[in-house]
Protein 1
Amino acid sequence: MNSSETVRPPPVRADAGSDFARLSRKIQEAGLMARRPRYYALRIAAVTALYAAGWTAFVLIGDSWWTLLVAGFLAFVFGQVALLAHDVAHRQVFRLRKGREVSGRVAGNLGIGMGYGWWQDKHTRHHANPNHEDLDPDLDPDIFVWTQDQARAARGLPRLLGRSQAFLFFPLLTLEGFNLHVSGVRSLFDRSLKHRMWEGALLTAHLAAYLGALFLVLPPGKAVVFLLVHQCLFGVCLGSIFAPNHKGMPILTGAERPEAFLQHEDAEIMLSFPGLGAQLGARVLAELGDDRGRFADARGLKAYAGSSPITRASGKKSSIARRRIKNDRLNHAGYLWAFSALRASPGAMARYRHRRDERGDWHASALRNVFNNLIGQLHHCLQHRKLFDEQTAFSTTAEQAPQAA
């Protein structure tokens, strides 16, 4: 039996690389990037118990205005479920993709009525280019405007509210819970959404159980008041959790990127790649390090990143499987990179569609193939100090693309 799983990168000297690379290694060695299965097992158990206790109290209290206290409590619990779904999407809870997909949809779609697939797509693009006016979907102007240019171009309600939106921030957060539900339902009409039937079934089950419980236990008037209190407080809870993480961060536009990353000698090359923004590029750079002789060839880097498959042969039998021993942080960054590249690179999209339509690959497998191509191109460009070239990178035909991996 032979396997390329034995490929290992040579160790990196403790004093090698830039300040950023050394800090990244120090954080990793301290275990701050490691998964915490025991913590999340206890947290999932605690949140599940609180979720069950909240609905049990709702039924026991019954037709009484005291049930509005339960609405406030369940708003907090729904916020905790949303945080668990967030951590699941960031691969902090489960190592395997199937566990992430099942638990994320159970928590998001079934638990709180949030379209997990739609949200994960948006959140992935957000983390690829956070706080970038043109590339971060969370900065798309809607009711809120985020820059002076957006304020000047705003019309209708956003223009009317723009001058006072700082004072209206918390009142408007009361609508965020409703926005999540509506966006999740609307996403079901998008054919590009993965597992639409599954997502739709879980969302329908949540809405049926939620509305059914409210109108069976409470009179119509109290049920409506409970729904408004619960969903409005849920929106405020979510906004109060996530919004502070972006306060004080600069908003970038056009070709602007964070200065610290731009000062690195490899920044120009990495930013020439489709789907690789400053934040994501910094993550990839931190995992690669600054020693360009660390990997003898692209094959070693692909094995380290977990993008290249493993071929096992024994006698007349052979099998191809995905790599399990890899750098999980680089592999996760590569998933985000490949996903973002689909929108920015026609070649990446053509390769992805070929793997999906012609080869019958699942979504994750097709993305891994795109990442495998991109990281091989990155190795070449860093070694030869060249910028990414779309035509050169994807010059192979659709029939040749699998062999190029």
Note: Confidence is low (pLDDT under 50) at residues 1-8, 397-405.
Protein 2
Amino acid sequence: MYNPREINLSKDTTIEQAMEPDKIQIIVLDGSQGTAHVLEAPEHGKTIIQTAKGSFARVDHEIGFKIK
């Protein structure tokens, strides 16, 4: 559900085309590897993007649940 997936960005791709209704998504652009990834953000929580040696390496989520 929150796993990043690689996407192909072409010159004709727009942000509007990439949006999915009722979802918050994060786009990671890795200039070192020349790749782009998209992942869904949790409804409540933090998303931490980690890099290693200048490249996108990992995504961590701190997910909370709202009571009441």
Note: The chain has a mean pLDDT of 85.
Protein 3
Amino acid sequence: MNDLIDLLLPHKYTYHGHKKWGEAMSSKKMGRPLSDNPKSELIRVRVDQEILSKLDACTEKLQTTRSDVIRKGIEKVFDELQK
């Protein structure tokens, strides 16, 4: 009795034992590796066109993202305040 037929729907199912889905698969999850310092907080900032243009110029020059430039700026200001 390896084949089951659903009388209500025109589908044929094949019975493959009593293992649960994914049971034979590895226990490791696929996907992006976990970060040591996850960036889970999101902030929104209003800027004018001039600041946005400066931000984009920085991203092009440094070959990085807007978020990275903003984080570096915050670190720089914080370090200056600690002096």
Note: The mean pLDDT is 80.
